[in-house]
């Protein structure tokens, strides 16, 4: 039997989440009507999402955007087989660091050996999915959390280290003062079991979706 917490958010789930958050959080009570009719957009291609997150990580937004545009210009580089067929020299030519080339090739080999879509993960809870991804070189906790939220649509994921989420919580709850992981966790206690929805609303309110999810 599939655990319902492992299934992607549906429109009915989203409505239930909003009802819960309106009751539990004064900030989200104001934000939810501003984004009525909008839902979290899932990325159907989990491999491309992970590639994007690795390319973008640890770069400023302008630098990451430039590198990502050059990456997208490489034929087939957003598919596992296409990336494996792309030479290291071609990847170096777009100024992709050698370390990230290694990470991406490992990721491509893993997906090519065992192709996966969102349904492949329904038997695994969030921790199990994260543990599987964290075993791959170059995939950190944040990458795994973005995969859980934006590919699998899991309802209760809280990316404590996401800079955009921290900035939004700082602006809405702490008058712009810096926030810690503990501060984020404390604010989000009221969001349970819909932390992904709460995080999405904060991102949307700041027009600051996680960098790795920019498509162009």
Automatic annotation (TrEMBL):
InterPro entries: Alkylbase_DNA_Glycosylase/TA, DNA_glycosylase, HhH-GPD_domain. Residues 55-207 form the HhH-GPD domain. Its EC number is 3.2.2.21. It comes from the Bacteria. SMART domains: ENDO3c (SM00478). It holds the Pfam family HhH-GPD. GO terms for molecular function: alkylbase DNA N-glycosylase activity. Keywords: DNA damage, DNA repair, Glycosidase, Hydrolase. The keyword DNA damage applies. It catalyses: Hydrolysis of alkylated DNA, releasing 3-methyladenine, 3-methylguanine, 7-methylguanine and 7-methyladenine. This is DNA-3-methyladenine glycosylase II. The lineage of its organism: Bacteria, Pseudomonadati, Pseudomonadota, Betaproteobacteria, Burkholderiales.
